[in-house]
Design brief:
six-stranded antiparallel β-sheet, 6 strands, globular, alpha+beta, 29% strand, Aspartate Aminotransferase, domain 1, 3 helices
């Protein structure tokens, strides 16, 4: 069974222009955090730091859905659709984005926190400030 490897282009193919634009803006925000790699599967485009994956997205007909992992919970934002504990120190936040304005500085801050997790920042002693 020779299964085709999924690519980013596969995820973007036949998606509305608005969803593709959301994906590109999400990646721009991740790029602003620092170097990362991709792990692409049929279910998700995952972005990885030096230690682990820290966020993932999937464009669809309604925009962008995805997740990020951070060390606290966010429960008071409409973009966050669910929060689940992943480990004692990490919480997986599922999100839904339908408009470019939702990828704002607050969202970028969450991605910066997630990027630190991808770099191993959640291991060891919690950092100050």
């Amino acid at each position: 069974m020779d299964q085709k490897a999924w690519t980013i282009d596969d995820h973007l193919q036949d998606k509305p222009d608005a969803s593709v634009a959301l994906y590109h803006e999400f990646i721009r925000l991740v790029e602003a955090c620092g170097p990362f790699t991709y792990a692409v599967s049929k279910g998700m485009i995952t972005v990885k730091g030096t230690r682990r994956g820290f966020a993932g997205v999937k464009p669809d007909a309604r925009g962008l859905r995805g997740y990020f992992d951070i060390q606290r919970t966010i429960s008071d934002d409409a973009r966050i659709t669910s929060v689940s504990p992943y480990t004692k120190r990490l919480f997986v936040h599922a999100f839904r984005i339908a408009d470019l304005a939702e990828l704002d500085e607050e969202f970028a801050g969450w991605l910066r926190e997630a990027y630190e997790v991808g770099q191993g920042g959640h291991l060891g002693t919690p950092r100050e400030g």
